[in-house]
Amino acid sequence: LLFPSCIFQMDTTQESYLDLFPLDAIVYLTPDSENVLEDVDPSKVYVLGGLVDESIHKKLTLQRAQEQSLQTARLPIREYMVKAVNTKNYHSETLAINQVFDVLSTYYETRSWPSALKAGVTSGKGYVLPDAVKE
């Protein structure tokens, strides 16, 4: 996927991303990474992990990336958002692929993590921007 000028191009292939790109250019995005994604680098290839049931397959995407010797990163949810008070006491940094894509594309356009996270992290995840917290 290419972000420049908000034009998205997608090619499909049966080839693995491991065969298409140099390993040092690949960043596997996983909510379990210790590395915070601070910026989107156009020279990197970002792999959005598959949909994983977080209650069954914890750390599956991190494990997959480590097995493939890939760099990993997570979205800066903890750095820019706060846990919202909710009746279920539910807080999750695991997002669907379309939500991660929304965050990345909004960040690329705005260069603002708060704007990007607001665009992709739904209130159902239990996180909100600090200014959205009702006193």
UniProtKB/TrEMBL annotation:
**Domain spans labelled SAM-dependent MTase TRM10-type:** 1-128
Catalytic activity of the protein: guanosine(9) in tRNA + S-adenosyl-L-methionine = N(1)-methylguanosine(9) in tRNA + S-adenosyl-L-homocysteine + H(+)
Q: Name one GO biological process term.
A: tRNA N1-guanine methylation
Tell me the domain of life. Answer: Eukaryota
E.C. code: 2.1.1.221
One term under GO cellular component = nucleoplasm
What are the GO MF terms of this UniProt record?
A: tRNA (guanosine(9)-N1)-methyltransferase activity; tRNA binding
**InterPro entries per the UniProt record, alphabetical:** MT_TRM10-typ, MT_TRM10-typ_sf, tRNA_m1G_MeTrfase_euk
Tell me which UniProt keywords the record has, alphabetically: Methyltransferase, S-adenosyl-L-methionine, Transferase
Which PANTHER family did the record assign? TRNA (GUANINE-9-) METHYLTRANSFERASE, TRNA METHYLTRANSFERASE 10 HOMOLOG B
The protein's name in its UniProt record: tRNA (guanine(9)-N(1))-methyltransferase
Provide the species name: Rissa tridactyla
